[in-house]
Amino acid sequence: MRQIHSEGTADDSLIAALYDRYALIILNYLSRYISSREDVDDMVLDVFLAAMENRVWMTWSDGEQLAWLRRIAYNKAVDYYRRNARHPSVALDYVASMLCDDDEYMPEHVALRNEDYALLRVHLSNLSELQQEIVLLRFGHGLPSKEIAQRLNKSDSVIRVTLSRTLNLLRRKYMQQEEG
Predict the structure, then answer these.
(1) Hey, what's the torsion of the CAs at 84, 89, 91, 97, to 10 degrees?
(2) What is the DSSP letter of 16?
(3) If you write DSSP's letter for every residue of 104-128 in order, what string do you get?
(4) Proportion of the chain in helix, strand, coil states, percent, rounded to 5
(5) Domain spans of the chain?
(6) Residue 3 — very low, low, confident or very high, per pLDDT cuts 50/70/90?
(7) Residue 100, SS3 per DSSP
(8) How far is 174 from 171, CA to CA, in rounded Å?
(9) pLDDT at 89 over 50
(10) Residues 6+ apart with CB under 8 A from 23
(11) pLDDT per residue over 109-149, tens digit each?
(12) Is the domain 103-179 a CATH 1.10.10.10 member?
């Protein structure tokens, strides 16, 4: 048991020496290719974990050890890019700020917007068929008044006047509702 423990300690000190010698070099190497400092730190650890798992480097010269570690680092960087290409990630801070800052998607705002839409549907249902059709074509389909006139076989001026009067009527209904 002591012999295994002392060998483990010797191996641990060799890994520690390898890390002390080359960690900064590997970190700088990976930093050239990976912009996220956290990802670089993780990859440096992965490189030295690979060195712990495969101890072929123990009898090599310093130059061979560094070349081997760089090759592992290169492979880790390639894996990183492949993983990000298949599964792009977004920083959690960015997502959290979007969720917190964008009140538009909060349940209260969604409920209020749905109430507004329901009220608009009620007001629109009280319009004549022609008014409903003009509003739908203009705002639902984004058509200009000239094209609406062609579709409904009306003059452009009739469509513009009808749309203007319809919008004014809807404004009055909303104002009355706010006052009452």
Answers:
(1) 160
(2) H
(3) GGSHHHHHHHHHHHHHHHHHHHTS-
(4) 85, 0, 15
(5) 2-89, 103-179
(6) very low
(7) helix
(8) 5
(9) yes
(10) 44, 48
(11) 888 888 888 888 988 999 999 999 999 999 989 999 999 99
(12) yes
What pLDDT was estimated at residue 138?
93
- List the one residue out of 79, 81, 5, 11 whose CA is nearest residue 51: 11
Using CB atoms within 10 A of its CB, is residue 157 exposed (0-12), middle (13-18) or buried (19+)?
exposed
Fold for 2-89, please state it. Answer: Rna Polymerase Sigma Factor; Chain: A (1.10.1740)
CA 110 to chain centre: 21
> What value does the mean pLDDT take over residues 40-62?
86
pLDDT mean across residues, the chain? 84
**Residue 175 CB-density burial (10 A; 0-12 exposed, 13-18 middle, 19+ buried):** exposed
pLDDT value for 71: 92
Q: What's the CA gap between 67 and 61, in Å, rounded?
A: 10
Residue 89 gets which letter from DSSP?
-
Q: Which two tokens stand for residue 14?
A: 């060799």
Cβ atoms 146, 111 nearer than 8 A: no
The pLDDT, as a whole number, for residue 17 is: 87
Using CA atoms, how far residue 21 sits from 26, 144, 180, in Å, is 10, 71, 79
Same fold, 2-89 and 103-179: no
